[in-house]
Specification:
With about 210 residues, the chain is of the alpha/beta class. The chain has 8 helices and 8 strands. The chain has a 5-stranded parallel sheet, sandwiched between helices. β5 and β6 form a beta hairpin. It is globular.
Length: about 210
Amino acid sequence: MRLVLVGPPASGKGTQAASLCDRLRVPKISTGDMLRAARAAGTPLGVAADRFMSAGKLVPDEVVIGLVDERLDAEDARAGFILDGFPRTVPQAESLSGLLARRGQVLDAVVQIDVPRGLLVERATLRRTDKRTGQIYHLKYNPPPPDAELEHRADDREETVAKRLDEYEAMTAALLPHYDQQGLLRRVDGVGKPAEVFARILQALGIQ
């Protein structure tokens, strides 16, 4: 099965991606991971990506698509994959479709995890990290022990969370309708326990 997994920050997308990988026995392909690996390996595409990243610029679509193409050649991706963090725009989605078509493949579905914005803010802003252990707690859902030395990371402060959610909404404003028109979009309620959300994803994909 070939999937794109989409969800806003704090939607639980990472947890669901891991569960899907285990169930489907396919790899999660993250463009961020690929970029870091290509830079470390010094591949031609990695060198090209490094020039842009070192200058604080976005890596061009053609470089990212090239990295995706290389990654799909790996043995573990022959039976399928879960794309996380790509595509982000309609041009990237069209490039991905072209890449898969050249391989004689198509996407099976695009899964969007829907969570109300207010709950996303609550999930993110109430996270705290124990400075001694690195363990992440949540003041409401997973309270820390009394002796924890808590730190409120900058990424979890309300103004930062709001900015990231705004960026996500702007990014997906055209992408989700694009996939909806193709009949690929599956919207899943992301409210509830991870196991409940996972069951909904499997149902949306028609997996028993």
